Amino acid sequence: MWAALDILLQANFWAAAIRIATPLIFGVLGALVCERAGVLNLGIEGIFVAGAMSGWLAVYLGASLWGGVAVAAATGAAFGLLLGLLTVPLGLSQHVTGLGVTMLATAATYFGYRVAFSTVSTPPRIEPFPPLHVPVLGDLPFIGTVLGQQSALTVFAFLCVGAVAVVLARTPLGLALRAVGDNPEAVEAQGLSVVALRVGAVTAGSALMALGGAFLTLSAFNAFYFGMINGRGWVCIALTVFASWRPGKALLGALLFGALDAYQLRIQTIAGGVVPSQVFLMLPYLFSIAALVLLARRADYPRALMKPYFKGQR
Amino acid sequence: MIRFVPRERTPLWLTVAVSIGAGVAALLLTVIPLALSGAPVLRAFGLMAQGAAGSGFALAETLTRATPLIFTGLAAAVAFRARLWNIGAEGQLYAGALAAVALGSGAIAAPAYVLLPLVLLGAALAGAALLLVPVLFKTRFGADEVVVTLLLNFVVLLVVQMMLEGPMKDEMALGWPQSAPLLDEATLPRLFAGLRLHAGLVLAVVAAGLLHVFIGRTVWGLRLRAVGENARAARYAGIPVGASMALVGLLSGGLAGLAGACEVAGLKGYLTADLSPGFGYAGIVVATLANLSPLGVVPAAIFVAGVFVGADSMSRAIGVSNYLADLVVSFALLSVLVGGLVTRFRIVRVRREPV
Question: pTM of the entire structure?
């Protein structure tokens, strides 16, 4: 019993929680930007895969780590642009198109990886982002240990939360973006282009999602594995509802999820042998479903979410 | 300037042409990654065609692979018709397979004409039960079924792994996590000696025919279509929307469960955690290629199965990764979606009048 609580007092646990949360922060932010503009992006799972592999491949071929991050973002943006063009001006089903983009991005990534490395048996490695040394806070006892295990990409994720929050809440662009997800007719009446705003939001959001994948190969691990995303993208879609489409709550939800995941990994070693490990591995998924079900009633969905808009048609 | 004008009716030939066109477009688009990878393009396609349909054996393998795809394709088609976005056929397939093994590997001793229907029924009910949970969440709490069904796929796979390493593990399997084999009485018969093709294909085609009649010719089928077209109008017309949704869930989950049962009872004989290489997700492509028509699901499933079987064979021959098949299939999905615009709208050129 005490051992189960003791976990919460370990600096390593909190360090792991933040590390697990980082890709989800990028993912939820990306999903939130898309959905705020009225487009459900189910391409997220595949965009994670494509971002993970393309960013890593760029670094493997000689780009800098931040160069890899940029390549991942560009890859995500490309798939986002495809999804945006298919769902916004053409008004295709956002569910099926999103799944199609996930399938395409995943297949293209796996095929590309096999073309690049057909013969290797152990995955090739890169030198990932080093742990960050924070000047003053890093010397504190507990906090220092937590922060000392994070990389620059995690800091970047936190900065992105702030940036998205400010843009959404405080800029004309953010206002237009929120409006286009709630009431596209009003945006059109303002003389702004619904299509351009929505496609732009999906492209930018998808770039953010791809960074979540890139974090896994450039910071958390140092190689690309098949199946490494394992539903993280779908979890982000659930967390977006949990966050009620707000960047601050998105950060909170991702950290909560990270803490839960880190906790189940540690409690496995305590309760191992008595309870099968799969029970603990299920917890994050069950938690996401529970959060979705409990909060769905109160959820304040963007009003035009998943509703295609055609100019001059009511 | 181009405008989309909605069609009142779509001629059947156009729908079929769009599906076939999408398949052709997908193969043409695949030329790009194939050429980029430096593979001999024409030879690769030739080997794929040969591997999928070049001999009686190849054709039998394709039809064997098509069997679960017909079931999952039907599962997606019936659900999507009613706008129930069931993306959980993969999990429901595993739930069905788990139920089949639980019932058919020694728990009940009965002759084949009792045990086999019991195994199939149990699998269908297990798949249906798994989908009824998200349907209930949707109708009761307004929780989006897409995410719930997607996440349940991961949960079910973990349950299967847990059962195969724990209570349902076959002690005779030398440590491999696999279930005990099904009894002979619970096994679907082979259709031809020496080929893997089994009676599951017959069941799948019969299911497609029955579903076609059900959707097109019965009151419940009409209600289901009405709920899909416009749930609010359906409710106003006095159609029980909740009950219709539950029925759709029952059918869709049940069909996906049967896919799992047929794979176990017709092909593998026992359950492992890698039973399905994504049949549930591929079912969505099959249903979309078929324009959600149950009868169209059969040829669409055979096409998708042919792509996978052909790519496997081509991959063994010239070493191009068989992920090429996934590329073809995802291109086909996106092509048919774009092509679907032609079936739903007439594209009219409008000359702008001077004001």
Answer: 0.93
